[in-house]
Amino acid sequence: MKKKWQQLSIFLLDHSFIILFIITGLVFLGFNLFTPYVADDYTYMGGKSLLDMLHKEYMQYMNMNGRSVAHFLARVFLSQNKILFDVINTGMFLWLTYCIYLHANGTKHTRVSKNISALTYLFIPCSIWLFVDVIGQTCLWLVGTCNYMWGAVWIITLLLPYSLYFIHGQNTCQHWYQQILLILLAVVAGWSSENTSGALIMIMLGWIVYALFTKTKLKAWMFESLIGTLIGYALLIFSPGHSVRMNDPQYAMSVVDDRNPLLIIAERFANATKFLFTKQIVLILLLAFFIILHIYQKKAKELIYSEILFGLAAFACEYALILSPGRQTDRVTFGVTILLVIACSIGLAGTAYDRKELHFARSAGMTVLLLFTFYQGVNGAYDVVTSYKSATDRVNYVETQVAKGAKQVVVPYITPEPATKYSAQYMLCDLSEFPTFWTNRVFAEHYKLDSVKAVKQERFDLIYKNTERRFTKCSDFTEYLRAIRKKGYTAFLSVHDDGSQFLNRTDKKILKKCGISKTPTFRQSFLAVIDDGKALYSNTGTEKLSYNCTIDAKQFSLLSQGKYNTIDADCSIKMNNQELTSPAGGMHVIVYNKKKHCLVDSVTFTLWRDRNFIR
After folding, report:
1. Following DSSP, what letter does each residue of 398-467 receive, concatenated?
2. N or C terminus: which one in the chain shows less Cβ crowding within 10 Å?
3. Tens digits of per-residue pLDDT, 539-579?
């Protein structure tokens, strides 16, 4: 038995790198599979063909922004089954981690033993997992990933030949076809991210300057890749869409700051410094430790220089945001963290562990890192799964309502609200209570709805969860009045402000058949309760009206205040003291199904201006 355990231990040690690589891939794939479509994903959906997607991206380049490569990829993936993206994105994340590992260790693996190689690799995904801000938005959310993680992949892949050449003495671009591919990659990398692509140019120039000072032979591919990067960066920065968007008054209002320019710069500088020395302080201190240690150990100058270069590039990547107009999202700091992880990985792999203290420090540090990663991973997994279930239930509900012919749908907020950075929905725009909000509009457009709005889960469960097709298919007030006359239903009507301007003769005839002979005139108060198609109560007047009744052992209280002789219009329909109406003006209707013992609809007809309705 002891011999078998020894054999197993030897096997695990010999294959520790590939085991960690597989585990990383499986964990990341799992998180991808439990990430739904969110926010901008619905904006970039709907590509009918490759030419259509190219045309849409061209229009965006000319009118919105220059991140054409990222957004075109997003359009392509959003036209396919999401599992395709999940698998490919997992592969990209694995390449991101392995590419960073190659920056640190080179391709020949001659400098370190197998177990140290595994530890170096383990440091990379754990550090990304812990220190990348809003990682759900930059590595899991489809549109966000194409912009940030994939952009970073192009950039560090382009930088890999530099690290291999200067740090490890390996020239990997000796053939003409490799150089052509490198130029194409350089254009894409330069076209990826305003601040991280800028840091890319800084690192490339840094290595060229280093070569000049150390008299290291410069290669043609270095200049070719630099030129390609500059071309891509120019396409990104000088996109016509940037100036078009800045000339848009609505967008300009959101980014224009009338304060003193020096005060604005000082505030942005302080915010950038706060980010670096709070959220990235562990990586910064670790990098400083490696630089000092390697100077003390008299390590090769190219090793120390590379750590300093990547570290400075990370700082430049963050402080470059000072020059960007408007408020920046946390996603733009992704490149900062990746550059710091590369610098620390180079330091970790380049350290000579020839003293017990260093062995202990490495083992203790990796143990703490692994424990924190596990803790955060468990919390993140729970958050991602619960958010995914809530989002999936919501989409299923919408699809059911669409199949029933609904044109206006009310859905719950994501519940519970995402609480960790590992959920793509964390701190990202969700559907709101306002149907005209941009997330609501693109979501409604995708499902071919007139509108969609979100409410709290409690309100959804109380009113909208049991919405019936009989009411959701109605297109105007006349149809709705006919629907509420059916037996088994009780309808409560109350006017807020005015509910008379667009009442037509047919509406008044149907109300009269129900027993309501007096309908409201301009800005009069109005209350009615229609039970089994007959008026249980109705009243109209210029004063505030109220009424209480019991239906199916539930207490209902109604209130209506038109705007005839007051500026304080009011309206309320409550069931057991729970408010069922919205603040909108018009004719509010609440419907209760006595057979199912539940509310089945809440709708407001804006009869003061038209015959439309709001749910």
Report:
1. HHHHHHTT-SEEEEEPPSSPP-STTSTTTTS----S-TTSHHHHHHHHHTT-SEEEEE-HHHIIIIITT-
2. N
3. 898 888 889 988 888 999 999 887 765 567 788 889 998 88
Question: Can you tell me whether residue 550 is helix, strand or coil?
Answer: strand
User: Is 78 within 8 Å of 142 (Cβ atoms)?
Assistant: yes
* C-alpha dihedral, 248 to 249 to 251 to 253, nearest 10°: 160
Under the banding of pLDDT at 50, 70 and 90, the label for residue 111 is: very low
**Residue with more model confidence, 322 or 125:** 125
Q: How far apart are CA 121 and CA 105, in angstroms?
A: 10
> Is 90 exceeded by the pLDDT of residue 386?
yes
- The CB density around residue 72, as the number of other CB atoms within 10 Å, is 21
Please give the distance of CA 359 from its chain centroid, rounded to a whole number: 40
**What are the φ and ψ backbone dihedral angles of 66, each rounded to 5 degrees?**
-100, 5
The CA distance from 603 to 481, in Å, is 12
169's torsion region: left (phi>0), alpha (psi -120 to 50) or beta?
left
Residue 391 has pLDDT above 70, yes or no: yes
Closest CA to 77 of 140, 131, 152, 165: 140
Distances (CA, A) of 367 to 74, 130, 173, 363, 425: 37, 14, 38, 6, 30
pTM of the shown model: 0.86
Which residues lie closer than 8 Å to 333 by C-beta, 6 or more apart? 133, 275, 279, 318
- Residue carrying structure tokens 């200067």: 166
What does each C-alpha distance from 352 to 102, 110, 349, 368 come to in angstroms? 18, 13, 8, 21
The pLDDT tens digits of the residues spanning 113-138 come to: 455 577 888 899 999 999 998 899 99
pLDDT at residue 227 greater than cutoff 90: yes
For Cα atoms 227, 233, 234, give the angle at the middle one, nearest 5 degrees. 90
CA dihedral 262, 265, 271, 274 (to 10 degrees): -80
Dihedral angle of Cα 163, 164, 165, 167, to the nearest 10 degrees: 60
- φ, ψ of residue 61 in degrees (nearest 5): -60, -35
Q: From start to end of 257-335, where are the E strands?
A: none
For the residues 77-92, what does the mean pLDDT come to?
93
Q: Which helix (H) or strand (E) holds 109?
A: none
Cα–Cα distances in Å, from 346 out to 203, 204, 313, 357, 595? 15, 17, 15, 20, 70
Q: What residue has token string 């809440």? A: 602
